[in-house]
């Protein structure tokens, strides 16, 4: 029996009604009586000492309520921003995490660093006043490039990080790898740069801080993917307020892609300032501020080598990466180039030994942290560019080389040399499916046709894997995480049979209000219109870890299933009592409880009513029908698949036209296929953006951000992208009750490698991202 | 302060505004119609798109005083008598939105697009949506939505 | 935005007499308003030209197309008269900015700003247009002086632009991938007075490519352009494109403009 709008149905989204009619409530749509407006004075320099700040003229400006500097926050005992994941270097030393004040104290370390917070009656007045602040800067020479920052003699950005080094980390068996290379028939090598990106959710970050002098409670409305984590950090480490006096609300949030995981200076300062002035304070970033301060993504420089035997079998893989952390260590920055990167370097392949080392360092740039995929796109890019290079060196078809080296479908659980245990998958199936979808074998004819038209055609494959459903708390704890990564849920029946689900996950575009409701609807037989999903308010939902790492369904959804199981268990007892049967004889399917072998049955609604009006009720049972659950996953999940891109290049201009895209993804079981496809589209679009269009550029000498607006940072538009062909395979995930793997990041992980492999295939030479028309044109015209 | 009079979503409104008040500020702050969003400060993302005298414009790149005497339609004024505009319905039916932030501007642009091109090809839709940025959908389902709406609108 | 005063005159003379030293004319506002928003510019007063009916409209006589300064890009793009007289001009207007920008932006505003990457300057110079102001008429080449600089005096206002109708003309633009301005745009026209090739986006100001004009004069075909290169020195270079690449784009876009010419 299947349920209408249940698991597996492409239910149209419940949340859409308010968004398509303009009735969503994004942060800047929320206002409070008496609210004042905050504006940050930011550093115009990439690196400078602050010798003096003179606020006198600014404080006297019309409409100014107050102006705060770093000294005020320090005097108030407010701590600095933290990094929540400790990485240990090769030599056993902990990573260097220099102080990071919300408002600069003695130095500014990137363009846009916060210098002062001006609060006025209007935003216009706050901006006017900010122009009157006189800051005496001693300008220093900056360094923005990670390789240059790690060179000896580079400007020293923090006293606490000698040589600008954050950590020098390793993973894998170096000796085994060295030995394998020594005996290899072939060694292939690549150098790749993973370009720095700006996440650019369309809603800029914003905050509204309120203070209730009566209760002493602070309320922060903020654009967050994980309001409880924000509250925890602000309370425990910054000392803004005790957790029980701090409420954090993340309302409708307009996209995140990782950038709204982190606890930033602006939100922290806004809530602190609300208490200082005892008035609501609103801060909304404009896009220019977003470019300067939203944590960036990627920015790796990597050298990799692959050893193969005479038969084309992989023997060993060796990777050396430099990772740019920016000016300060952001909330989860340290984990991205290490445990979210090195651990995925086995890809879909049976590789006997792997060794990876990563040097992370500081530069005078915006901090870098997790951005859609976080470490896994970087890993996939290295692995898949490497596989194509090796296939080319070995004169093998790149898909044949991959198929030859894939972990086989009967090999699970499969332990990689980089501490992951893959639980399920069928990599050859997905690759062959993608090849069929794009007519891989017909490529040669299409290439000839393009050539006849004066165009250069290329095809590129990426077989990616990711570790999602982040993550088993014990596992991440042993690797340095400062938090557990379980999830919470409460399923609460109302007496009349409707349901409110409280989840610690947070939706900022993913459609949880629909997907989670489908689970309830399917398992408890409640019409989907009668299910309300509540998230994003620390005063409403149980402590939860939030949404990132494609974890909401695998972890948050599983917590909901656990709570549902408890509801069913209790309902069976009530049903047994009401139908005068033994609990063992009660059968349950989709919200109908029946007595085995009879036609006696009760619906979930009737049982819920009985639980709230317990006139005839089991004596040993609590009334009411609400259950909560916390779910800690047993393992990561491992979505995987193959994407194939086909391109046609105009040699006159170097313009790359994506003429076809085929994706075959294994996300395990799927609750809502429509939403899953949408996630793949969006991920692929961001991956294409990285490969062709996007890249944060700093001026080498001054450290100024040269891509500080949509005039210069190239966002993918509708006419930059093709339509996508998407299909899925399914090996259910064995480690969670829904059998799901997660789909949010796959596209962004697979796409850059597939597209760049296609371009390299067309050009016959290597090229770095983004493959702009000029770069491609130069490659065509160089020898 | 300058007095502006305009008709917004069929309702006559009047207010005294500073000349440097943008139309989008007037809509969001004076009229409290917060469905029109601001996603950039260089007039490119199109989240603030509304119709002025029937044409799509970026309300962040127009002064409120310039709209004096004009008929303005925002996303809140698109549905009539509780019934979704075919474009709104198509975005929902075809999953043309995820986070929803760009959506009001995207829908307003799309309505104008179909007015100008009653039977648009995929290529026309993609080209004509140049002034609207979406970060979530990869545009695939937006294109599908606009095409479906155009068909339903009798193109 | 900093504060400013606002005036909306209904005639050209009124507008000109309203303008003071620190004031600015406001046409479609698609460049001026973003600049003011970012506080990159300041004005004592904005004199809005939107209420001046005499500045709007398109008319075509036997030999020329006349476009009022406050005529929007969308109106030029959609004008049946322009489409039949100078289809390349209509095509160019339909590729300025995006749909919303074309619904507000005007020809007068665009050329008075003289952004080095704007499209219209290529059409004006390529077609040998005449710019009419409240004071005088001057050739497009005399009008566009340098980067963001025109021959306009402080109290001078563009009223209309007249374009002689060519035998054939074409425009090809390579947009900046991010901003969608012209990274390089080439307007080619075959007129009774000879062939004109105007380049925008590639340098600090629109310019004529005279080598190409000479080659096309004897043989108006894309083949005639093969081998003709533009010196990269003097062309613009930025994070989007080097001078060398822009020089290449001039050749490629010129050939495409010739092919498209009708």
TrEMBL record, chain A:
Keyword set includes Oxidoreductase: yes
Keyword flag Phosphoprotein: no
InterPro entries tied to this protein: Ald_Oxase/Xan_DH_a/b, Ald_Oxase/Xan_DH_a/b_sf, Ald_Oxase/xanthine_DH-like, AldOxase/xan_DH_MoCoBD1, AldOxase/xan_DH_MoCoBD2, AldOxase/xan_DH_Mopterin-bd_sf
Protein name in UniProt: Xanthine dehydrogenase family protein molybdopterin-binding subunit
A Pfam family: Ald_Xan_dh_C
SMART domains per UniProt: Ald_Xan_dh_C
Stretches assigned to coiled coil: none
Keywords for this protein: Molybdenum, Oxidoreductase
Lineage: superkingdom: Bacteria
Every Aldehyde oxidase/xanthine dehydrogenase a/b hammerhead domain range: 21-141
Gene3D superfamilies: Aldehyde oxidase/xanthine dehydrogenase, a/b hammerhead (3.90.1170.50), Aldehyde oxidase/xanthine dehydrogenase, molybdopterin binding domain (3.30.365.10)
Automatic annotation (TrEMBL), chain B:
Pfam families with a match to the protein in the record: Fer2, Fer2_2
Domain 2Fe-2S ferredoxin-type: 2-78
InterPro entries cross-referenced by the UniProt entry: 2Fe-2S-bd, 2Fe-2S-bd_dom_sf, 2Fe-2S_ferredoxin-like_sf, 2Fe-2S_ferredoxin-type, Beta-grasp_dom_sf, Diverse_Oxidoreductases
This protein's UniProt keywords: 2Fe-2S, Iron, Iron-sulfur, Metal-binding, Oxidoreductase
CDD domains: fer2 (cd00207)
Record's protein name: (2Fe-2S)-binding protein
Gene source species: Sneathiella sedimenti
Lineage, broadest ranks: Bacteria, Pseudomonadati, Pseudomonadota, Alphaproteobacteria, Sneathiellales
From TrEMBL, chain C:
Keywords, comma-separated and alphabetical: FAD, Flavoprotein, Oxidoreductase
SUPFAM superfamilies attached to this UniProt entry: CO dehydrogenase flavoprotein C-terminal domain-like (SSF55447), FAD-binding/transporter-associated domain-like (SSF56176)
Domain FAD-binding PCMH-type span(s) in chain numbering: 1-168
InterPro entries reported for this sequence: CO_DH_flav_C (IPR005107), CO_DH_flav_C_dom_sf (IPR036683), Diverse_Substr_Oxidored (IPR051312), FAD-bd_PCMH (IPR016166), FAD-bd_PCMH-like_sf (IPR036318), FAD-bd_PCMH_sub1 (IPR016167), FAD-bd_PCMH_sub2 (IPR016169), Mopterin_DH_FAD-bd (IPR002346)
Cytoplasm listed as a keyword: no
Source organism superkingdom: Bacteria
A Pfam family annotated for this UniProt entry: FAD_binding_5
Name this protein carries in UniProt: Xanthine dehydrogenase family protein subunit M
């Amino acid at each position: 029996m299947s349920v209408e709008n249940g698991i597996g149905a492409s239910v149209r989204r419940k949340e859409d009604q308010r968004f398509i009619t303009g009735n969503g409530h994004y942060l800047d749509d929320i206002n409070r009586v008496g609210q004042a407006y905050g504006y940050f004075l930011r550093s115009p320099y990439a690196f400078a000492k602050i010798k003096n700040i003179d606020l006198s003229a600014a404080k006297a400006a019309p409409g100014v309520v107050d102006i705060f500097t770093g000294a005020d926050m320090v005097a108030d005992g407010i701590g600095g921003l933290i990094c929540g994941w400790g990485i240990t270097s090769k030599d056993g030393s902990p990573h260097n995490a220099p102080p990071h004040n919300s408002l600069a104290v003695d130095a500014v370390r990137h363009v846009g660093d916060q210098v002062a917070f001006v609060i006025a009656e209007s935003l216009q007045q706050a901006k006017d006043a900010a122009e009157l602040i006189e800051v005496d800067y001693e300008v220093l020479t900056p360094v923005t490039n990670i390789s240059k920052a790690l060179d000896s003699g580079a400007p020293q950005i923090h006293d606490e990080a000698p040589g600008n080094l954050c950590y020098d980390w390793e993973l894998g068996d170096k000796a085994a790898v060295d030995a394998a290379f020594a005996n290899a028939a072939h060694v292939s090598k690549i150098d790749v740069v993973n370009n720095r990106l700006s996440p650019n959710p369309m809603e800029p970050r914003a905050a509204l801080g309120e203070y209730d002098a009566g209760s002493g409670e602070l309320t922060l409305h903020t654009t967050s993917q994980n309001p409880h984590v924000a509250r925890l950090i602000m309370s425990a480490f910054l000392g803004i307020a005790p957790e029980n006096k701090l409420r954090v609300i993340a309302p409708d949030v307009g996209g995140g892609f990782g950038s709204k995981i982190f606890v930033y200076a602006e939100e922290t300062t806004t809530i602190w300032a609300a208490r200082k002035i005892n008035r609501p304070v609103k801060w909304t970033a404009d896009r220019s501020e977003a470019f300067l301060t939203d944590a960036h993504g990627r920015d790796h420089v990597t050298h990799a080598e692959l050893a193969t035997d005479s038969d084309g079998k992989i023997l060993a893989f060796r990777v050396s990466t430099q990772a740019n952390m920016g000016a300060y260590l952001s909330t989860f920055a340290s984990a991205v180039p290490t445990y979210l990167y090195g651990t995925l370097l086995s890809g879909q392949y049976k590789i006997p030994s792997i060794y990876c080392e990563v040097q992370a360092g500081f530069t005078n740039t915006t901090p870098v942290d997790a951005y859609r995929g976080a470490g896994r796109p970087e890993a996939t890019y290295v692995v898949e560019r490497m596989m194509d290079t090796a296939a080319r060196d070995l004169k093998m078809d790149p898909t044949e080389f991959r198929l030859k080296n894939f972990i086989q479908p009967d090999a699970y659980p499969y332990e990689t040399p980089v501490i992951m245990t893959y639980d399920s998958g069928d990599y050859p199936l997905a690759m062959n499916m993608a090849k069929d979808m794009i007519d891989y074998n017909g490529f040669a004819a299409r290439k000839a046709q393009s050539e006849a038209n004066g165009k250069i055609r290329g095809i590129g494959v990426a077989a990616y894997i990711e570790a999602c459903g982040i993550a088993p708390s014990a596992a991440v704890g042993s690797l340095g995480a400062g938090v557990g990564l379980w999830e919470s849920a409460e399923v609460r029946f109302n007496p009349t049979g409707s349901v409110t689900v409280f989840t610690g996950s947070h939706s900022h575009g993913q459609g949880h209000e629909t997907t989670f409701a489908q689970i309830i609807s399917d398992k408890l037989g409640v019409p989907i219109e009668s299910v309300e999903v509540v998230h994003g308010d620390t005063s409403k939902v149980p402590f939860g870890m939030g949404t990132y790492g494609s974890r909401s369904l695998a972890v948050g959804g599983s917590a909901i299933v656990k709570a549902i199981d408890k509801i069913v268990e209790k309902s069976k007892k009530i049903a047994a009592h009401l139908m005068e049967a033994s609990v063992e004889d009660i059968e349950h399917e989709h919200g109908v409880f029946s007595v085995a072998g009879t036609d006696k049955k009760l619906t979930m609604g009737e049982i819920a009513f009985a639980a709230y009006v317990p006139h005839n009720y089991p004596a040993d049972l609590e009334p009411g029908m609400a259950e909560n659950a916390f779910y800690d996953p047993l393992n990561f999940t491992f979505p995987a698949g193959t994407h194939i891109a086909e391109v046609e290049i105009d040699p006159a201009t170097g313009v790359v036209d994506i003429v076809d895209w085929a994706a075959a993804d294994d996300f395990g079981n799927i609750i809502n296929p429509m939403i899953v496809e949408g996630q793949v589209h969006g991920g692929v679009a961001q991956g294409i953006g990285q490969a062709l269009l996007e890249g944060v550029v700093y001026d080498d000498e001054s450290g100024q951000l040269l891509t500080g607006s949509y005039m210069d940072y190239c966002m993918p538009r509708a006419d930059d992208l093709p339509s996508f062909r998407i299909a899925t395979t399914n090996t259910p995930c064995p480690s969670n009750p829904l059998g799901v793997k997660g789909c949010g990041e796959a596209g962004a992980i697979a796409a850059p490698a597939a597209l760049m492999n296609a371009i390299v295939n067309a050009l016959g030479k290597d090229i770095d991202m983004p493959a702009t028309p000029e770069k491609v044109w130069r490659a065509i015209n160089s020898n | 302060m300058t007095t502006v009079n305009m008709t917004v979503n069929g309702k006559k409104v009047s207010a005294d505004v500073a000349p440097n008040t943008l139309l989008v500020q007037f809509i969001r702050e004076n009229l409290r119609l917060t469905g029109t969003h601001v996603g950039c400060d260089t007039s490119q993302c199109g989240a603030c798109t509304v119709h002025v005298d029937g044409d799509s414009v970026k309300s962040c790149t127009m002064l409120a005083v310039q709209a004096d005497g004009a008929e303005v339609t925002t996303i809140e004024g698109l549905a009539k008598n509780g019934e979704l505009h075919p474009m709104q319905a198509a975005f929902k039916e075809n999953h043309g939105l995820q986070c929803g932030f760009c959506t009001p501007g995207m829908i307003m642009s799309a309505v104008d697009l179909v007015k100008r091109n009653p039977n648009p090809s995929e290529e026309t839709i993609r080209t004509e949506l140049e002034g609207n940025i979406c970060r979530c959908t990869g545009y695939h389902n937006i294109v599908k939505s606009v095409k479906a709406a155009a068909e339903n609108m009798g193109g | 935005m900093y504060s400013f005063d606002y005036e909306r005159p209904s005639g050209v003379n009124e507008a000109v007499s309203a303008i003071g030293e620190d004031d600015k004319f406001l046409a479609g506002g698609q460049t001026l308003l973003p600049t003011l928003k970012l506080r990159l510019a300041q004005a004592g007063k904005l004199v809005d030209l939107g209420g001046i009916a005499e500045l709007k409209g398109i008319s075509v006589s036997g030999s020329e197309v006349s476009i009022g300064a406050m005529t929007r890009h969308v109106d030029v793009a959609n004008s049946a008269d322009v489409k039949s007289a100078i289809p390349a001009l209509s095509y160019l207007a339909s590729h300025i900015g995006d749909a919303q920008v074309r619904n507000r932006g005007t020809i007068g505003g665009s050329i008075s700003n003289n952004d080095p990457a704007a499209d219209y300057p290529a059409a004006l110079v390529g077609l040998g247009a005449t710019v009419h102001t409240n004071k005088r008429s001057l050739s497009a080449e005399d009008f566009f002086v340098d980067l963001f600089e025109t021959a306009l005096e402080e109290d001078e206002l563009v009223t209309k632009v007249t374009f002689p109708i060519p035998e054939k003309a074409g425009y090809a633009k390579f947009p900046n991938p991010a901003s969608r301005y012209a990274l390089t745009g080439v307007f080619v026209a075959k007129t009774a007075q000879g062939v004109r090739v105007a380049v925008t986006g590639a340098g600090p100001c629109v310019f004529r490519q005279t080598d190409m004009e000479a080659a096309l004069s004897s043989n108006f075909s894309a083949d005639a352009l093969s081998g003709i290169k533009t010196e990269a020195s003097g062309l613009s270079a930025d994070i989007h494109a080097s001078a060398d690449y822009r020089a290449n784009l001039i050749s490629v876009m010129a050939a495409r403009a010739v092919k498209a010419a009708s």
